[in-house]
C-alpha cells in the first residue's frame, strides 16, 4: 500500500483514521437495517449497474473504498480494480481478490497517473464537507477516461422519513449536525463539475428504525421494497439513491 499525508484541517478526511473506525464500520453491516439493505437491496442493485459497464479489459476505481465492500463487487465485473482511501486503518481490514490493488492515498492531492472506465464512490459524498465534495468530484473527473462513468450514492435523502426526522433533530439539537441531501441538490453539483446524469435509482423505502428491531428489518426490508416499487411510490420517499453519471 502507498501512504500519503492527509490534511488535518479537513474533518471528514480524518474521520476514519482512529483505531476504532474500522470495527465501528464493520458493525454497521453485521445486523440491522444497513446490513439488510446492503445484502438484499443495495448489493443486487449495484451488480445490475456495474455488470453492463464491466469487461475483462475494462478498469474501475473505487474512491474512498474503506474496507473494500464496494471494491469487491466491482472486482466481479472488471479486469482490474484500484481502491483508494486516505485511512490506513480502514484499508488494513480490507479483504479483496487478486485483481484489486489498494492504495492509501488522497487522489484529490496526489493524482494517479492513469484513468479508468468507471469510478464508484459510496457513503462518501453525504458526510463530506461541501468543498471536499467538489474536490472529490474534480479528482474523479480527472481519473475518468473520456465518456467514463461515475456510480455513486447518497445514503440519507432529505425527503425520506429519516431525512425529515434528521432535519427536525438539526433544528432541535443543532450541536450534532445530521447531513441530508436531495437528488436535485446532488445532481446539480454533479452537473456543475462536468458530469451528465445518465440514470438514478432510489432505494431503501422501509423507514429506518434506528437500533431497534434489527432482525425485523432483515425480514421486512425486501418485501417492503418490492411493494413500494409495485405501488410506484415516488423515489423521494426512499432513504437512499444511486446516481449514474458520465464524464462530459
Description of the structure:
Helix 3 packs across helix 9. Helix content is 38%, strand content 23%. Strand 1, helix 4 and strand 2 form a beta-alpha-beta unit. With 248 residues, it is an alpha/beta fold. It is built from nine helices and seven strands, in the order αααβαβαββαβααβαβ. The N terminus is likely disordered. The chain has a seven-stranded mixed beta sheet, with helices on both faces. It is globular and about 45 Å long. It starts with 10 loop residues before the first helix and ends with a strand.
Topology:
Blueprint: H1 11-14, H2 21-28, H3 33-50, E1 55-63, H4 69-75, E2 78-85, H5 88-91, E3 100-104, E4 116-121, H6 130-143, E5 144-154, H7 161-172, H8 183-192, E6 195-203, H9 214-230, E7 240-247
Parallel strand pairs: 1-2, 1-4, 2-3, 4-5
Antiparallel strand pairs: 5-7, 6-7
Helix pairs in contact: 3-9
Short account of what is shown:
This protein is of the alpha/beta class and 248 residues long. The chain has helices at 11-14, 21-28, 33-50, 69-75, 88-91, 130-143, 161-172, 183-192, 214-230, and strands spanning 55-63, 78-85, 100-104, 116-121, 144-154, 195-203, 240-247. Helices cover 38% and strands 23% of the residues.
Query: Strand count, sense and closure of the main sheet?
Result: 7 strands, mixed
Q: How many helical stretches?
A: 9
- Would you list the SSEs in sequence order as H and E? HHHEHEHEEHEHHEHE
Kindly state the percentage of residues in helix: 25-40%
Q: Helix- and strand-based class?
A: alpha/beta
| Beta-strand percent range | 15-25%
Q: Which strands sit side by side, in order, in the main sheet?
A: 3-2-1-4-5-7-6
Which spans of ≥5 residues are poorly predicted at pLDDT below 50?
1-9
**How many beta-strand elements?**
7
Rg (CA only):
17 Å
Shape: globular
Give the CA-CA distance, first to last residue. Answer: 32 Å
